[in-house]
Amino acid sequence: MNKWLVVHSLESYTQNPTMIGFPAKKELDGSLSLDKSGKAVPASPRVSEMKSGDRIVYYCKGDSVVKGIYEIVQSHFAKETQWPDSPFQFEIKAIIELEEPYDFKLLVSSLELFENLPDRRKWGGVLQGTYNTIRQLKDSDYRLIEESISQANKEILKDEQKAKEETPDYRQHLLLQYKIAEYGLKHGYRVHVAINDKNRIKENLPGILDEIPQFHAEQIIRGARRVDVLFFQKDRDILTHAFEVEHTTNIYSGLLRLNDIAESYPSEEVKFIIISAESNREKFHDELDRPSFSLLKRHGCDFYDYREVDEAWKEVKSRKPPRF
Q1: Does the pLDDT value for residue 320 go beyond 70?
Q2: Where in the chain is the domain with CATH 3.10.590.10?
Q3: pTM for this predicted structure
Q4: In whole angstroms, what is the distance from residue 214 CA to residue 224 CA?
Q5: How does DSSP classify residue 84?
Q6: Using CA atoms, how far apart are residues 77 and 51, in angstroms rounded to an integer?
Q7: For 27-75, what is each residue's pLDDT tens digit?
Q8: What is the spatial distance between Cα 4 and Cα 142, in angstroms, rounded to a whole number?
Q9: FRET partner for 57 with CA separation of 20 to 30 A, picked from 100, 151, 183, 217?
Q10: What CA–CA distance (Å, rounded) separates 304 from 302?
Q11: Fold of the 167-318 domain
């Protein structure tokens, strides 16, 4: 079993989280290079070495983060039609999949992959190339990456559980979801609340949807079920608003869930909104400047603090124009 570090992007992950793809080699005139049997040739010779059972560290360029570790299930040729320029494709399954990607820069000083660099601050050059870069990892590097992201994932899950156990914070989260959901219902939208909180909200707000509308492909809907609050048009399965409530400074994970929708859904008319404390407003803008969130930024992803949500909720009864 070989271990590989594969350079892709969060955009590719959003398009199909169960596949990775690599380009074919081309001639100077743009046509595909063919071998003696008339078959296309992969641009990177490493592609031919990748086999079922191999492990992949999924590195996302631009953001310099690791999305997770995956196992190759089987190879395909041009199965994913969204990637016509990357016909050499592999079906993958998650071994460790991070909701909040891991900052790869934390590992650079410890990886043998970069040991021959005179200046490790220039580590990014090792992962650059004309095509999606593939680097074979030594067992020691693979173990270090696996242990690091596993520990980080455990801490994230522990923090999430702790947040739920700390009643005041969780109650505040639920209260904000409730206010946003009621705001949507009062303005004539159909409203969906994240599946992990839905039962608690529905006790006091029975008008929210039992099931999420089939507004897109299943792989997008699967992630959308966990978005804190979604608004849909009254008579059609068309998404209009997507809200994420973030109590901590971890704005990144909320933006990532919104971005998964923005990358794959006709999002020009969708309003993407982060709700958090006023003290996190600057953090929100810093995170939104990441390359992977350029689409969210272009479509005007907004930030509202708790006070603004409370005011908008109260304005429903006074019949003022919608704030969101």
Answers
A1: no
A2: 3-161
A3: 0.57
A4: 10
A5: T
A6: 14
A7: 888 777 888 887 888 888 899 999 999 999 999 888 888 999 999 999 9
A8: 8
A9: 217
A10: 7
A11: Rossmann fold (3.40.50)
